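Homework help board

Subject: predicted structure for assignment chain

Our instructor gave us this sequence and asked us to write out the predicted structure in token form, then describe one feature. I got the tokens but I'm not sure how to describe them. Can anyone check?
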Amino acid sequence: MIVIESKRKKIENILKKYPEAIIADVTSNAKDGLVKLSPFYPHGGIPVPFSDGATAECVEGIWQALKVFETEGIDPTMLRNGTMKNLKRTVRKHGKVLGHQKGIAGREILGYVEAKHQIYIPTFRWVLENKVADIIERLRIAAKDKTIVLLDYNTCCEVDSPTKPLSHAYLIKAYVEGIYPYESENKTKTEAEELTLPFDD
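My token output:
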């Protein structure tokens, strides 16, 4: 079983709720190999949706690069940011968000929910399948017998919320368990060698 809890909660309180659970920090502040599950992690070579041949360093870079504001359009320089820092483009600085541009050279502006489904969710899935498949398989195996608590700063699991940002920890859970929005994920994987948590490689 995989559950989502706030990174801001005390570990002892989480363990009271889920005794003997494995705590897995999947934020950009993780101190072990699980940091690779953060959308801020610079894997490099991540395809930018609707942008032939274009790639980015991290998922968050794509999400922020394609964001369109009242006073500023997209910012392709965000695609090259591999520092895990200064990746946020804010309303305070750029005005109201109008949506996300459908590709670097696109003209269509996607609404928030559409952008999650057409940009963020498939991009994160690409990373799960192409950059961290080994970690995902280890999570899948461990979750069969244990409770895995994924820590994230944002814990919203409402994929289609028009206002709330989606927890990437939930997307990890969804992919491992084959549930919405990754319900088409084939859960009958080939048998893999079981590796022991924590992920410290």
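Reply (TA_rk): Your tokens look well-formed. For the description, you could write something like this. The two ends are 23 Å apart (CA to CA). That's the kind of observation they're looking for.
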